[in-house]
Amino acid sequence: MRGDDKKDKSAGYQRVVLKNASPYHYMKVCLVLEDESTKLSAVELKQFIITGLKTLYGEVGAALNFDLLKYDEDTRTAFLRVCSRGLVKLWSSLTLLGFYQNQACAFRVLQVSPFLLALTGNSRELQLD
Amino acid sequence: MVRVKSRYLLCEVNVSDRSLLLLLDDRAIAAAVKSVVARIHGDYGAALCSIRFSVKYLNAHTGIVFLRFPKRCYKLLWSALPFITSVESRGQNIPCFLNCLHVGGTIRTCQKFLVRYNTQQLHRMLPKCKNEEERQEVRKAILNCSLTRQNKETFQDETESEEDEEE
Amino acid sequence: MSVFMDLNLSYTTDKNRLQSVIETAAHLGFSTVAINYGFEPTAKKKQEIPTPKPINELIDQLPIVQGRSRPIRVLNRLTVVMSDSSHFRPNAAEYRSFDLLAVQPTTEKLFHSACMLLDIDIICISVTEKLPFFFKRAPVNGAVDRGVVFELCYSAAIRDSTMRRYTIANALSLMESCKGKNVILSSAAEKALELRGPYDITNLGLLFGLSDAEAKEAISSTCRSVLLHAETRKTASGIIYTTKTCSDSTCQQEAPARSELCEAPAAKRPHLAE
Amino acid sequence: MSVDLDQTPRSILVWERSSFLDEKNRINSEVEQLHFNYKVSVLLPECSSTPPHLESVLTSFSRFYLVRNLPLHKLLDKEFLETAVYQGSVYGLSYRTRIDEDNCVALMPNGRLVLSLDKDSFQVLGFEGKPSTFGNRTKNRFVVTIDLTDSSMAPGGRGYLRLLTGLTSRLSLQMDFLLSHHPGGGASLQPLLSHCDWSEHTPEISTQSLTHLSCPEPQSCDPHSFLEWLGAVHTDVSSLSENSSSNFLSSLVCPEPKTTLSQALRVSICGLLLPQDVHHLVQELRCYLERSRLECWTSLTVHGFVDSPVSWGDREHGVLRGGENFYTLLMFHDHTYHIHLATGAHDTCPP
Lengths: 129, 167, 274, 351
Description:
The complex is a heterotetramer of chains A (129), B (167), C (274) and D (351).
Chain A: E1 2-8, E2 13-19, E3 24-33, H1 42-62, E4 66-72, E5 77-83, H2 87-95, E6 99-100, E7 103-113
Chain C: E1 5-10, H1 15-28, E2 32-39, H2 55-58, E3 73-82, E4 100-105, H3 108-116, E5 122-124, H4 137-146, E6 149-153, H5 155-159, H6 161-178, E7 183-186, H7 198-207, H8 212-219, H9 221-234, H10 255-261
Parallel strand pairs in C: 1-2, 2-3, 3-4, 4-5, 5-6, 6-7
Helix pairs in contact in C: 3-4, 7-8
Chain D: E1 12-19, H1 27-33, E2 37-45, H2 52-59, E3 64-71, H3 78-85, E4 89-95, E5 104-107, E6 112-118, H4 119-125, E7 130-131, E8 141-147, H5 158-170, E9 174-182, H6 186-193, E10 197-201, E11 204-216, H7 223-234, H8 239-242, E12 258-273, H9 275-291, E13 297-304, E14 325-332, E15 336-343
Antiparallel strand pairs in D: 1-15, 2-12, 2-13, 3-9, 3-10, 4-5, 4-9, 5-6, 6-8, 7-8, 11-12, 13-14, 14-15
Keywords (chain C): Acetylation, Nucleus, Phosphoprotein, rRNA processing, tRNA processing
Main location (chain C): nucleus
Subcellular location (chain C): Nucleus, Nucleolus
């Protein structure tokens, strides 16, 4: 999936077009719980997501690798990294997770991108008043 | 009218004690497949496995099973089959594993394959025969291997599978 | 693409809960929602068709859609669960007070008539049980031609693992027949936490056998067609529209939509067979 | 229809290497063609406080104006055209509208007005346009491009009157609008602003200093890994500094070979930013690199608006799941640079 557009070594100029080559996708998610006071550590969150993967995609799903890059315990907002092939699986299992320890919960997926940098500059977050 | 496409998996049930094979029935195999798919591929796999999945044919003597899966997800479902370690049938737990021999688009191609496969098996058995009588019987069986003539009991599976109409 | 819609929020008598559902929907970015009144007639006793509560009684101030400067639009919808053909009474005056009309057929025969004959907007696909019938190509195509859409609800899939299997399996069987056309995805949420964001639903659509673009259409453009279809149901071929002189509070922000109906494109004209 | 869950929507990353000293370098056009910039972030390795020159460039970024409920036909106002559009460049972008749902409008510095309309609005407007390239099967979105500097669009012209009647009597579009003008600023926009409810905004600057950062070798690092690392720095991912790949939570590590930066400075600025200002910033960063004694580098990331109807030049832009359009410029001491241009699914290949 790698296409070299043009290469001009002599002038020190080089251009490479990489299509669909991003090895990972990044997600910014926020967990909403019925009881807002519940504390959830990073390890618990990751375990919880793995259970979600396991119910929806079984043992194969539970083996899906993803990383919890950053987690803020107060807002329960996390940055996840998952290999591009596993994005749909991870995302759908987050969507279908409805209960955390018998209380209703919901994952709000705030942004998804093949570039981690894109998560730092989302113009939809611009608040002017 | 568009044909609904399926894939037929021709599998062999391998058990340590062949007498246990007789305990098997369609429903037991189907339940085993469903539960292993649910374990390996979760709810999503279980959902896929509930559409048009069926055990088309089972020969309890030879341990041959025909499984039908929808064409677009057969690979996913197939990938769970190696994880079957036992089949629960008639209150008994039969340790076994499924060995997939052939994947075909119609029952007929699977059947053709099965005939060829069985012929090969007979050829392999031939040198192992203990007396002349057995040898003769195996030779006769090999000669009878063809799709048009299904008279031998050994190939009972074929006669039955032809009764299933193809979709 | 048009705005995101969720055409099925379950009605509850608990006003606070309904308010929080609508607020969450607005927060997630849905611009239009419909409150669904279920109606399940039984053979034994005659039941009243529910009447929709006016929106301003349910919620004092409509919340602003996230990231936008307009308030959410709230509609009413009636879903009739049909187990007998007499359960749907065409021309019933009670139906007229609803913006959208849906049926949930429980047998193949009723499914056929819902697709081909009944003057409705939405056919609900049951997701809480194994399908009692197969989706035949002919009625499904008929429904697609008439502009009637099929609805899949996802909140049952969040509640329970068995339901999730039924939801995915029934959705996939439906997609086999309708090829992703005329499908809408909605929540049927009873609680705010059963709602999911529009992009989440788009992704969920992939599990139901839709493509990326089809899944996004299922919560936007197809829903828009449903609204247009519903409008034409109330009019004569979408050309003449009569209205009683009562102010229609639900249409406040889509004022242009009204005038433009008269010049609706041919494809969006009603397919009133009768 | 398929059950293939492995696929993800398309994404494109263009990686380019060149030198500022090369006359044929395209950096200026690449910077200037991304018209609507939302955020610029700069990473200065081995730097503890904002250099004064840089600070002054950042504070001199043009102000922009938010106009509430701007009736779109006001953009065709004769006075506005004469004082703003024909004189210099106007940057205008609809605000609080989403490109995949609503009608979005952009006024580009070359005097082109781009309307990305849904089907209903397009049909009501009755002006020539073409279906969006991203609509595949169903044509639900249409793009109308109007060159306001064209003779037929001069006030009183045929096209002008048609568009004006379309926007006044048939489709009365009203939306919040972000506006900026180069070089006139607010003064040139006065004819428009005087009729409306507006507010002035200055781009927001924020600065963070970072310490003990593992850092890859920017010259040789593979583009995706480098962008990932840069993203991790900008999102404050802590596991980067721990750097243990066996961690249960995250296996993200800094690409090898790596060095450790004792300190670094991250400066970002947010708002409707003009390419001209970004260009200044690039020049200033080059001067900064020249002044610094070390074998040093610096990076600049510019994010475009997600809901802009155009990305680079007048290439159409849309949102499937995320409308990322950004570039990262990596500048080195010896005047060479690397630029990474990235777009999402509903976008064409960057220039």
